[in-house]
Automatic annotation (TrEMBL), chains A, B:
This is LacI family transcriptional regulator. One of its GO terms (molecular function) is DNA-binding transcription factor activity. Transmembrane segments: none annotated. It comes from the Bacteria. It holds the Pfam family LacI.
Length: 324, 324
């Protein structure tokens, strides 16, 4: 059956047989196709559905950002549909196609780990579907919401210095990812601002895991001049540091300071509890929706819009040398 | 503009003016409405999209189940759209409407905390859209995937008995929720199977939180005959128990045993690490998709289908009295 036949059958065209019309109509009904739905969309021009593309559902960070988006979007009369990509480029492309198929009014997205080709996002732009990125952002001229990793890391490093730690090391995430490069630079800048010379031996390149936190700590402790504090690029790494220090019988925070980044769910429950930077995930989700909503409402957009969310320090036991 | 006019314009009906046709067609194009999409759906009868309704995105449990669903669904050529309800009945209804609007081929759902009215799900059934529930399941004749809380709790309690703990208490979740009632009954049955008389003073009614774990522990310790172990209905409660025992300077596991339920992300990182039952969340998601896919493929369904996922014990430090 051709598209033309379907169209005619749906509009009761006299040249189409009653049988064909019945088949098409039943199928159309099953698919919940209704002409008045199009008529309604014609009046408002909108479906009141937005799509949110996330790299993985197995990470509390994205769950919390979604919570922020859904929360504000529902107050504005929008339904939110989420698509998880399992960190795979193929599923990311499929997610975008599904959103287009569902005729979403706009898309909020965060990149999967290995996405290097942005054609699917450029297709969204060509269709004039409003698009906003958050956290993991491509090098494209598209509005986005990110965390201020540089200043957050500067703050954390300064705090360790203020607490009296003398040799502060850093276990980074992969430095080719902007997010982690920013945190490394914030650490470096804080040392410089305090006239502490940067020692590249004190930087261990980790991979966002408990294991790399443990491995990095073992390596740093084996140096001729070991550090007495570590600023970790994120909380799983910091958790690994705490675990290794416990094994090495080094007391935190008396002998050694540890500072993380993310305020992951577990960080307040470690022993000692972990000082870290809160990423304000719910706020990030709300800001992403606000930005998208502005674009939907105003029709046009300022592609250079970049909202920078300020991370908030959460000082717990692992960095408080002075009170001990 | 009426639905009839839109239908006619789309099918190039001679009575509709060129201007109206142009408006409708442009709008239809903007909405990505295409007659051949309907024709294509007519041929396959499917959109290859399924909807997943979750109570909240701020809980690692649901993120992990989604991961299981998406993983298997994508292998079967399905896209998965997720809708978070923020534990609100209103958003649950809206989510279902959005899924119907997106013409999903099937829906997998878990109930929000206060959902008592199931009309929106009955509407899904009336439309013959395949529907499967997981974890939080209504009292309806609809296929579902649940965890075997009774036997998991029996196992945990038996383990505490085997380790030599003598008075085993239980801090429950809200007992009007089936999930938590099952766990309470499993605890009770294990005591009975070991000829240990059930003492209602040893059951504290909690509310799935760290605070209620702490409060319950304080209460139980204040009894004339306090317990020397607690089986908690879930891991946040167990975490609260560990925190309170630390404050009360009671050593775990030497003096006191603690067992949780869920294997929440943080449970391996507490001090001491928490023994718990793993809910096999990814498997639960996969089973839910398999069940849904069977219904989609076979057209009919056995409404009594109930898949029961077996929880797996994860023995860590908090319950191992014997090795100490």
């Amino acid at each position: 059956m051709t598209a033309a036949t379907v169209s005619r059958a749906l509009s009761d065209h006299p040249e189409i047989s009653a049988k064909t019309k019945a088949i098409v109509k039943e199928a159309a009904q099953r698919l919940d196709y209704k002409a008045n739905r199009i008529a309604s969309s014609l009046r408002s021009g909108k479906t009141h559905v937005i799509g949110v593309l996330i790299p993985t559902a197995e990470n509390a960070f994205f769950g919390s950002v979604i919570h922020g988006i859904t929360n504000l979007a529902s107050k504005h009369g929008y339904s939110v549909l989420i698509h998880e990509c399992d960190e795979l480029y193929e599923l990311e492309v499929k997610g975008i196609q599904t959103f287009i198929g569902a005729r979403v009014d706009g898309i909020i997205a965060s990149l999967s780990r290995n996405t290097l080709d942005y054609d699917h996002f450029l297709d969204v732009k060509r269709r004039n579907i409003p698009l906003v990125f958050f956290d993991r952002v491509p090098d494209l001229d598209i509005p986005s919401v990110v965390i201020d990793g540089f200043n957050g890391s500067f703050w954390a490093t300064q705090h360790l210095i203020d607490q009296g730690y003398k040799r502060i090391a850093h276990i980074s995430g992969p430095l080719y990812i902007n997010t982690f490069n920013d945190r490394f630079k914030g650490y470096e800048a804080a040392l410089k601002a305090n006239d502490i010379s940067f020692d590249e031996n004190l930087v261990f390149s980790g991979n966002i895991s408990i294991e790399s936190g443990m491995e990095g700590t073992r390596h740093l402790l084996s140096l001729p001049e070991p550090p007495d504090a570590i600023f970790a690029a994120e909380d799983f790494t910091a958790l690994g540091i705490l675990k290794q220090l416990k094994i090495s019988k080094i007391h935190v925070p008396e002998q050694f300071g540890v500072f993380g980044f993310c305020n992951d769910m577990f960080s307040e429950h470690t022993t000692p509890s972990l000082s870290t930077m809160d990423q304000q995930t719910v706020l990030m989700g709300q800001e992403a929706f606000k930005l998208l909503n502005q674009i939907i409402e105003n029709g046009n957009e300022d592609n250079s819009s970049k909202i920078v969310v300020k991370p908030l320090p959460v000082i717990r036991e692992s960095s408080l040398k002075k009170v001990h």
